[in-house]
Design brief:
The protein has about 350 residues and is of the alpha/beta class. The protein contains 16 helices and nine strands. The chain has a single domain, classed as Alpha-Beta Barrel (TIM Barrel), CATH 3.20.20.210. Strand 8, helix 15 and strand 9 form a beta-alpha-beta unit. The structure holds coproporphyrinogen III.
Length: about 350
C-alpha cells in the first residue's frame, strides 16, 4: 500500500494522497448522515463511524482512510463534558484550571471507555479489506490541554499560558496525565488494527519556540516514544510549526506533517531527508478554480522533487466550503503527475 511505503520512505508507483478531515461536511453523503445523527452519535456508533470514514474512500482516489472520531473524545472519560454546538466548535465543561481540577481527571482504559473507536477501527479495517490502510489518531497533549483549560477554541490561549508559565508543576501533572491517556489510546487503536497513527498538534502555532520546547515537546515525545515499538508508522502533524520545525521534528515521528506557511522544499531541508514529510497544500486553495488549483498541486510535487517519502496532503483540515470535485481532481492530479 503506497501510503505505508511512503511513510517508510520507500519508492512508490505514485505519490500517496489523503486529506486531513477528509470525512466531513463538504461531502453531500456526510451531510445526509448528519441530518440524522449528531457528531458524537456518529463517533459512538461503530457502523456509522466506519461508514463516514469510507465515504471519501469511495468517492475519491485517496490512499488512506482515517478513523472517524475526534481529538476531543478522550476528555469525556477523563471526566469533562463535551458538546459540539452548531457553528461554534467544541465546548468543554467544566474547564480544567486548578490543582483540584487536574487531580480529578481520570486516566481511563481505552478498551472500556473508548471501545467504540477501537471497534470502528476493526470494522473499517474489515470493510477496506486491504484496499487502503486505516489511520488512527489522537490530539497531542498540548493541543488537548489547551482545549481543556480554555474550554473552547481560543485566540490568545491566555489561561493555558498562565498555567504553563505560572504554575509549571501543575502544568506538568496535567500534561503527564494526557501523555499517558494518549499513549494508551493510540496503542489501543494500533492493537485494534490501525496501520498508522497520527498525532495532531493543531495549536502548536500558539507557542513560541521556548514554550514548545519546554512545555509541549517533552510530552509529545513521551507519546511518540511509547509507540515506537508498535511496528506501525507514526505521523506527527503540527500547524504553525515553521518557527521551530527542527524542535518539532525532534519530538519524533516517522512522518512530519507541515502546514502551508512554509514551502515544502524548505521544510524538508530543515527536517532532513531522513524523515518522510506530509503536506502541504493550503486548504483555502481547494476553493480556487481548476487551473490555479492545479498549479498549486504541481508546485508542491515539484518541491518534493520525486524523493521517496512525500505524502501529499493539505496544510490543515479541509474546509467545509470545498467543492468535492476539487478533492477528486487533486487526488487524480497527484497520482498522474507523480507516476
Ligand atoms: O475524516 C476525518 O478526518 C474525520 C475525523 C476527524 C474529526 N475531527 C471529526 C469531526 C478528525 C481527524 C478530527 C480532528 C480534530 N478535531 C482536530 C485536529 C485536526 C485539525 O483540524 O486541526 C481538531 C482541532 C478537532 C476539534 C474539533 N472538532 C473542532 C475544532 C471542531 C469544530 C470545527 C468544525 O469544523 O465545525 C470539531 C468538529 C468535528 N470533528 C467535525 C468533524 C467531521 C465537524 C463536522 C460536524 O459537526 O459534523
Amino acid at each position: 500500500m503506497r501510503f505505508l511505503e511512503a511513510c517508510r520512505r520507500r519508492r512508490t508507483d505514485a505519490t500517496p494522497v489523503w486529506f486531513m478531515r477528509q470525512a466531513g461536511r463538504y461531502m453531500p453523503e456526510y451531510r445526509r448522515l448528519r441530518e440524522k445523527y449528531g457528531l458524537l452519535e456518529l463517533c459512538e456508533r461503530p457502523a456509522l463511524a466506519a461508514e463516514a470514514a469510507l465515504q471519501p474512500v469511495r468517492a475519491f482516489e485517496v490512499d488512506a482512510a482515517i478513523v472517524f472520531a475526534d481529538i476531543l473524545l478522550p476528555v469525556r472519560p477523563m471526566g469533562v463534558g463535551l458538546r459540539f454546538a452548531q457553528g461554534e466548535g467544541p465546548a468543554l465543561s467544566p474547564p480544567v484550571r486548578t490543582d483540584k481540577d487536574v487531580k480529578a481527571l481520570r486516566v481511563f482504559d481505552p478498551q472500556e471507555d473508548l471501545g467504540f473507536v477501537l471497534e470502528a477501527v476493526r470494522l473499517l479495517r474489515k470493510e477496506l479489506d486491504g484496499k487502503v490502510p486505516v489511520i488512527g489518531f489522537a490530539g497531542a497533549p498540548f493541543t488537548v490541554a489547551a482545549y481543556l483549560i480554555e474550554g473552547r477554541p481560543s485566540r490568545d490561549f491566555r489561561r493555558t499560558k498562565m498555567m504553563m508559565r505560572g504554575a509549571p508543576a501543575l502544568w506538568d501533572r496535567l500534561m503527564s496525565k494526557l501523555a499517558k491517556v494518549t499513549s494508551d489510546y493510540l496503542k489501543g487503536q494500533i492493537r485494534a488494527g490501525a496501520q498508522a497513527v497520527q498525532l495532531f498538534e493543531s495549536w502548536a502555532g500558539a507557542l513560541t519556540r521556548q514554550e514548545y520546547v519546554r512545555h509541549a515537546a517533552p510530552y509529545s515525545r513521551e507519546v511518540l516514544g511509547a509507540l515506537s515499538g508498535m511496528g506501525v508508522p507514526v505521523l506527527h502533524f503540527g500547524a504553525g510549526t515553521a518557527p521551530f520545525l527542527e524542535d518539532f521534528r525532534d519530538a519524533d515521528g516517522d512522518v512530519v506533517g507541515v502546514d502551508e506557511k512554509i514551502p515544502l522544499d524548505e521544510a524538508w531541508r530543515r527536517i532532513g531527508y531522513g524523515r518522510a514529510i506530509q503536506g502541504n497544500l493550503a486548504p483555502q486553495r481547494m476553493l480556487l478554480g481548476r487551473p490555479q488549483l492545479k498549479k498549486a498541486v504541481v508546485d508542491i510535487l515539484r518541491r518534493a522533487e520525486g524523493r521517496p517519502g512525500h505524502i501529499f496532503n493539505l496544510g490543515h483540515g479541509i474546509l467545509p466550503e470545498t467543492p468535492a470535485d476539487n478533492v477528486r481532481a487533486v487526488a487524480e492530479w497527484v497520482h498522474e503527475r507523480s507516476s
